[in-house]
Design a protein that fits this description.
Helices cover 27% and strands 31% of the residues. It is α+β, with helices and mostly antiparallel strands. Strands 1, 2, 3, 4, 5, 6, 7 and 8 form an 8-stranded antiparallel β-sheet that branches.
Length: 187
């Protein structure tokens, strides 16, 4: 059944590379737990103990606020076809904003999709597999392009205004790194 590893093995990396969807879990020290689905080709394995994903603009920014509070993050991958498996990565995450010194090196690993707002990097301290015997089969039909079309239509100024309204503070009132940057800029 389940096994615990200190780092990703090559077979874990191969499993991750085949997934069309993954989930990100985070929680502040005091407040709501958040779980977000992530699609598109936005995740990169940087090393057996480090991953990063390109985070796109959304209606909230909970993970970012939680990471700024305590850094805790869990990424989960599920086999919807083939042999059953659930793979969880436990770690400490960090938000990398576009004007951060680390952005350039990390961003070059991704196709910068319209609406990209930050990169989430996670140092992994535990990898856990579990059976996934009760996970149903699903057939993948394709990526939704609605967010990318919406972001392209908004343009950078429109996205900045949207992020100021929707992404600067979490639902629990935690200021996100985007919110901190906006405050530093007097917005």
């Amino acid at each position: 059944m389940g096994k615990l590893f200190p780092a990703l093995l090559p077979e874990h990396e191969a499993f991750i590379a085949k997934q069309k969807l993954f989930f990100v879990g985070s929680a502040p020290t005091d407040g709501h737990v958040n779980l977000s689905p992530k699609g598109h080709d936005v995740l990169r394995v940087l090393s057996p103990t480090e991953v990063a994903y390109l985070d796109l603009t959304g209606s909230g920014n909970e993970t970012s606020a939680h990471l700024d509070d305590n850094g805790r993050i869990t990424l989960m991958f599920v086999a919807f076809e083939g042999a059953p498996m659930i793979l969880r990565l436990y770690g400490q995450g960090q938000v990398i904003l576009p004007d951060s010194p680390e952005w350039e090196a990390l961003a070059s690993r991704f196709e910068l999709l319209p609406g990209a707002r930050q990169i989430i990097r996670a140092e992994i301290h535990a990898v856990k597999t579990s059976c996934g015997f009760s996970v149903p089969f699903f057939h993948y039909e394709g990526e939704r392009d609605m967010l990318q079309r919406w972001a392209a239509t908004k343009g950078e100024q429109g996205l900045d205004a949207y992020r100021q309204e929707k992404n600067a503070v979490s639902m629990d009132g935690w200021v996100t790194p985007i919110g901190q940057r906006l405050r530093e800029q007097g917005q």
